[in-house]
Design brief:
Elements: E1 6-10, E2 15-19, E3 26-29, E4 35-36, E5 42-43, E6 48-51, H1 52-67, H2 77-93, E7 97-105, H3 108-115, H4 117-132, E8 140-145, E9 148-156, H5 161-172, E10 177-179, E11 182-184, E12 188-194, H6 201-217, E13 222-225, H7 228-250, E14 253-262, E15 268-279, E16 283-285, H8 291-297, H9 300-320, E17 327-331, H10 334-338, H11 342-353, E18 360-365, H12 366-371, H13 373-385, E19 389-395, H14 402-407, E20 412-415, H15 417-420, H16 427-442, E21 446-450, H17 455-463, E22 468-470, H18 480-490
Parallel strand pairs: 12-13, 15-17, 17-18, 18-19, 19-20, 20-21, 21-22
Antiparallel strand pairs: 1-2, 3-6, 4-5, 7-9, 7-12, 8-9, 10-11, 14-15, 14-22, 15-16
Helix pairs in contact: 3-4, 6-7, 9-11
């Protein structure tokens, strides 16, 4: 311990600052207490001798770490929030227009995944410097985290200036950047919230974030202003998203079955499995209310697994109970076909339920196949080799082509409901349906008509030699117990 002759006390911090007469750059931090032996010498317990110059440098580094982003050097989230709160206090006394802009670099994850994090970091540095070059000295740019930035526009002459600044920033990124030999085009999804009386810093940031997600929905490379209507829709989507995650974990989905009927005999030969959601608050929820979001977020893969498993369980139960049925049809989405473990999950479910693959049918749409034709064909070939039946759903509404029909390993065509709705009143629909049936038969494919609701429609389909149908003429989609009753009634 150094011999300490001078003592300086800084009250209120619980620290004693002491200075050696020879080593004047040193002082000691001591906790909350010290022991004084006499007037000239001080005995310190649990003391730490520190170089004050080094401590000053360390404090500066700590302050930078606390308030500035280490990669870009920009203000960080914590300091930005403080500055925004301070600005909001100031405008209570000195009225002026301010706005918060939330930026998200479009497709940044793809850049990181394909080119590496080092290139991604260099790109973020370039982004920060480019944005800084397009804003005013009174504005504050911060890195919010990851590929997100936030900008405080202060003292705006007009609200319209927000659009001008956003467009100027977009123009700055109109040309691609060369990042270590990689030519990268950058765009942003931007959300703008203009201050309104009573808004807090948290509300402004949240609103700008909500508006940013609207820009993503527009297709990215866009900016959007926050409005209360947007807030309601985005918040509803966010709530739906959270509810969907819980629904998957809690297995809140049920499977209904719409009978498929042999036109010649009138007997039920199978069914299409259709998912419904029993929402804990809203109850029975139709697919159009949640499937689009499930597709977008990728939840459809897990939902599809749950539906397929239940459909296979129910089909096996029906067969074991003596019901004579040909197939249970389950819809497939593009996300499922893209999923690496999809085929294996199908095999696992068939094994666990002991269902013969020949009783399982997968329905795919023309549009879905054409989006990733080669990959889709490969997956469908694998499924067909397992013994699973394949059909084209909603035929006639997408890329109807003989060439791709010949290539695909399908056994059935399902004529879209739009051709059946007025088949008993519109001769054009009759001719189109007749042509589809003839073409399918020439390729060795069976045909099922969707959406049959009237006896007159069924009579025409019978004349055109369509094999089967489904629709409300027989039954709406029903739960498994009601489906069993329908089969017993229809097939005896």
């Amino acid at each position: 311990m150094h011999r300490l002759l001078k003592r300086q006390i800084k009250k209120g911090l619980g620290e004693e600052y002491l200075e050696d007469e020879k080593l004047q750059n040193f002082f000691t931090l001591i906790g909350d207490y010290y022991v004084e032996k006499d007037k000239e010498r001080i005995l310190l317990e649990n003391a730490l001798v520190v170089n004050s110059a080094e401590l000053t440098e360390t404090n500066t580094q700590l302050q930078n770490m606390a308030f500035f982003d280490s990669l870009t050097g920009l203000t960080n989230r914590k300091l930005f929030e403080k500055e925004l709160e301070l600005t909001l206090k100031q405008i209570q006394r000195n009225k002026r227009n301010i706005a918060v802009l939330f930026f998200d670099v479009d497709h940044f994850k793809t850049i990181n995944d394909t080119l590496g994090h080092d290139i991604g970091d260099e790109l973020l540095i370039t982004v920060s410097r480019t944005i800084e070059s397009r804003i005013r000295s009174c504005d504050t740019l911060a890195r919010w985290g990851g590929d997100e930035f936030v900008l405080l526009l202060d003292d705006l002459a007009h609200i319209d200036d927000c659009s001008i600044i956003a467009e100027n920033i977009q123009k700055a990124f109109s040309e691609p950047f060369d990042i270590e030999g990689h030519i990268i085009k950058i765009s942003f999804s931007i959300g703008i919230n203009v201050y309104e009386d009573g808004q807090t810093a948290l509300q402004m940031l949240k609103n700008a974030d909500i508006a940013m997600y609207l820009s993503k929905e527009k297709g990215r490379d866009a900016y959007s202003f926050f409005t209360s209507d947007i807030s309601k829709q985005i918040l509803a989507d966010q709530k739906l998203n959270e509810s969907l995650i819980k629904a998957i974990d809690n297995k809140e989905f049920i499977v209904l079955y719409q009978p498929q009927v042999d036109i010649a005999t009138g007997k039920i030969t199978g069914a299409e499995a259709l998912v419904r959601w029993i929402h804990p608050e809203h109850g029975f929820t139709m697919p159009f209310e949640f499937i689009p979001l499930a597709e977008e977020k990728g939840y459809i893969v897990e939902i599809g697994v749950q539906v397929l498993e239940q459909a296979c369980i129910d089909m096996k139960m029906l067969l074991d109970s003596g019901y004579v049925l040909n197939n249970i049809a389950v819809n497939l989405s593009l996300k499922q076909i893209r999923h690496q473990g999809f085929v294996q999950s199908v095999q696992n479910i068939l094994n666990s339920t002991s269902l013969n693959p020949s009783y399982l049918e997968f329905e795919v749409t023309e549009t879905m196949i054409m989006k990733e034709y080669e990959h889709a064909c490969s997956v469908l070939d694998t499924l067909r080799n397992l013994g699973i039946t394949l059909s084209i759903d909603d035929f006639g509404t997408g890329y109807s082509s003989l060439s791709y029909l010949k290539r695909l390993p399908i056994q059935k065509i399902k004529i879209d409901k739009s051709f059946i709705d007025e088949i008993d009143r519109d001769e054009n629909d009759v001719e189109i349906t007749k042509a589809i049936i003839a073409m399918s038969h020439s390729l060795g494919l069976k045909v099922l008509a969707e959406g049959v609701e009237e006896e007159s429609q069924l009579q025409i389909l019978r004349q055109l030699k369509c094999e089967s149908y489904q629709g409300y003429y027989c039954s709406k989609p029903v739960a498994i117990q009601e489906f069993k009753t329908l089969v017993q009634k229809q097939n005896t």
